[in-house]
Structure formats: structure tokens, C-alpha cells
Specification:
Layout: E1 2-4, H1 6-15, H2 18-25, E2 29-30, H3 33-40, H4 47-56, H5 65-74, H6 84-95, E3 100-102, H7 106-115
Parallel strand pairs: 1-2, 1-3
Helix pairs in contact: 3-4, 5-6
Length: 122
């Protein structure tokens, strides 16, 4: 499974993302509620329908804040340019076996790659 972060969805909503469309068609995408919440801050075409669609996608398990904090410390993930939402997405990939993280964010990509959880997608 693939957890697509906010950057992937924004790209898709702006210009269309054929890679995301293919992954969705193959039912390979899971969503994190923090990604949906971040997207809700933006201007979305067909807002209610779009948010409803995102809410109906398979949901990734969400880490407890204590789990995220432990992961930050044990993984030495501080001062790497990622924030709390990014750290939550990383933690969720570990809570959801066989899930990889797909992002266009350069700092998050670097962290995901170093942890072996980066999805090999553009």
C-alpha cells in the first residue's frame, strides 16, 4: 500500500497526476486523516464531494503522539526539516505493514528514503 502525502494530492488536484490515478484504480492508496485535514484548508473544486471521497479511502492507522515522540528520539529525526504531520505520516507507515510513503517534499523524501519507507514513484 502507498500513503500519499499532501504534496501528492495537491499536485493531483492542480494538474492531474496519472501515477496517483493509476494507484487509486489499483486500490493501492491509503489516506491519513491529517492529510485530509491539511487538504481541507485549501481551495478544492467540488469541495464536499472531494473531501467525502478522501474520507472514504482506506485509512492508515494513526500513531499516538507518544509513539511519534519515541520514533523521533530513537530515529534521530530532529533537525531534518520535517514537522509533526510529516513525522505522523512516517510513524503511520511503520504501523501499517507493507505501506510506503509517497511525497514530493524534499526533506520528507530524504527521511523516508533513509528509513527504507519511500515509495519509488515520481
Amino acid at each position: 500500500m502507498i500513503l500519499a502525502d499532501t504534496s501528492i494530492w495537491i499536485d493531483h488536484f492542480r494538474a492531474g497526476n496519472s501515477d496517483l490515478q493509476a494507484q487509486l484504480a489499483n486500490r493501492n492508496i491509503v489516506i491519513h486523516p491529517f492529510v485530509v485535514a491539511e487538504l481541507a484548508f485549501g481551495s478544492l473544486r467540488d469541495r464536499l464531494q472531494t473531501l467525502g471521497y478522501l474520507d472514504r479511502l482506506p485509512q492508515a492507522k494513526v500513531a499516538q503522539l507518544s509513539e511519534v515522540r519515541r520514533m523521533i528520539e530513537t530515529g534521530s529525526l530532529w533537525s531534518l526539516g520535517i514537522g509533526l504531520i510529516d513525522a505522523h505520516l512516517v510513524a503511520s507507515t511503520f504501523l501499517n505493514p507493507a505501506t510506503l510513503l509517497w511525497t514530493k517534499d524534499k526533506h520528507l523524501r530524504k527521511v523516508a528514503k533513509s528509513l527504507g519507507i519511500l515509495a519509488n514513484l515520481p
